[in-house]
Amino acid sequence: MKPKFFIVTFLLALACQPIWAKIELPNIFSDNMVIQRNDKVLLWGWADTGEEVTVLTSWDNKEYKVKTTINAKWNLEINTPEAGGPYEINFKGNDTEIVLKNIMIGEVWLASGQSNMQWSATTDKGIDNAEEEIKNANYPNIRFFTIARRTSDYPQDNIPGTWEVCAPETMKDFSAVAYFFARRLQGELNVPIGLIDNAWGGTPAEVWTPKSVFDENEDLKTSAESVEETQWSPVSPSHLYNGMVHAITPFKIAGTIWYQGESNRGRSDVYGKLFSEMVGSWRDAWDSEFPFYYVQIAPFNYKEPEQGVLIRDAQRRVLKTIPNSGMVVVSDIATIDNIHPTNKQDVGLRLANLALKETYNSFEGEVYGPLFKEVHPQGKKIEVIFDHSAGLMSKGKKVTHFEVAGADGTYHPAKAIIKNDKVILSSKEVKEPLNVRFAWDNIAEPNLFNAAGLPASSFKSE
Questions:
Q1: 366-405, pLDDT tens digit by residue?
Q2: Which residues are CB-contacts of 132 (< 8 A; sequence separation ≥ 6)?
Q3: In whole angstroms, what is the distance from residue 417 CA to residue 423 CA?
Q4: How many Å apart are CA 339 and CA 336, to the nearest integer?
Q5: Where, if anywhere, are coiled coils annotated (predicted)?
Q6: How far separated are the first and last CA of the chain, in Å rounded?
Q7: 3-state secondary structure of 132
Q8: What's the maximum distance between 2 C-alpha atoms anywhere in the chain?
Q9: b/e per residue, 45-72, with b = 16+ CB within 10 A?
């Protein structure tokens, strides 16, 4: 071969190699960001192979040095102090210097799911009292990061977006549930709150789940392959995990809030396992058993019988299998003719109270509605026992939406009496009731609550 050929081949090979002429940071690092307090957090980025990067943190005036690897990447673990700010972080390489300003140290939460999490004060019909809520949204210690909607066949190392300070002009287009969650946390804890929003309306849980889950679970893989295409969201397994989650998994978070499930109707038989595996895979990716708090979907007039309530029941049941998790029930704020209830305030408040009690130990009130525990058949009657049932009551003259079944498995409406925070059921059509179901309908809006004013979840005792 001629020498010229070798020269051309060498230049082409060189052109194909990643060459970083300057320090670059992932977009999750920007002015106005919030970093998790009292923790070991990772800083990372890209630079020339072998280049030394110097990092200076203003909260302790410490200087760190790290060298870029052969893959043109560098990372550095640092300790963060108690909440506070604003601070700066200085990144300096051979020819580049980046200074991030107005950084706060506090609590960082990820908000994910489908449209009810994505819903903002200005989306479609908006939220309750939207104009007033927007006008009063001046909370400089709450910060927003919205991940732009992206799909990918493969896990990505970066995502588009930038941190913004909470103000009327930024709050109005951000997740309303996440905003109300943060407002409650910030008011109670008095620390900066960072919110990362990566919700996408209409998405099934399969798209948020990494490929490894489907590789290891043939039943979930088969179910995922059956998801029908839609015109408003991607349905390919793992595509949003790849495009919107993977890149931020090195970024330390306090926990996740989740509002999703509507788009998994018709696959309720595997939803509990899928959801549990998804949560576990996220925790593995973050290398953290962070709390995961989620919303049980609200009643809605779906065309398919029972598909909505079957998902609600799957969400109730899986609560026992996912450690460090919590679920809020929102049947009392449902609008059965609108799949997007406009009362996002109470949803955010209930999620925040869960976090305040179970993560931060700073709330003493009840945070759960009554949750089915067990039934005790008693001849012509059957007794239903709930957890979180103190002050069990009905908001109405009679307790509604209970049904009982005998050995034949046929359910009939039941008369319900509350006694000593238990429910006693009977029915003329069932001589010896053995099982109970409650609010077992897509549009059921039951009236059973506890003293905290929180609604009971639908359930089936079988």
A1: 999 999 999 999 999 999 999 999 999 999 999 999 999 9
A2: none
A3: 6
A4: 7
A5: none
A6: 78
A7: helix
A8: 98
A9: bbbbbebebebebbbeeeeeebebeeeb
Q: Give the tokens for residue 104.
A: 């706060």
Asked whether the beta carbons of 327 and 112 are under 8 A apart, the reply is: no
Dist CA 346 CA 359 (whole Å): 19
Q: What is the rounded CA–CA span in Å between residue 264 and residue 230? A: 13
Pairing of strands 193-197, 139-146: parallel
Preceding peptide of 86 cis, ω within 30°: yes
> Quick check: 73 and 23 in contact, CB under 8 A?
no
- Among 32, 40, 51, which Cα is nearest to 89's? 32
- Structural domains in the chain plus CATH codes: 106-358 (3.40.50.1110), 372-460 (no CATH)
According to DSSP, the residues that pair with 435 across neighbouring strands are 405
Concatenated DSSP letters for 20-80?
-SS-B--TTS-TT-EEESSSEEEEEEE-STT-EEEEEETTTTEEEEEE--TTSEEEEEEE-
Tokens of 139: 């909370």
Helical packing angle, 218-225 and 268-286, nearest 10°:
110
Instruction: Name the strand (E) or helix (H) holding 419.
Output: strand 415-419
- Tally the residues of the chain: 462
- 233-281 pLDDT, tens per residue? 999 999 999 999 999 999 999 999 999 999 999 999 999 999 999 999 9
Instruction: Estimate to the nearest angstrom the gap between the alpha carbon of 351 and the chain centroid.
Output: 10
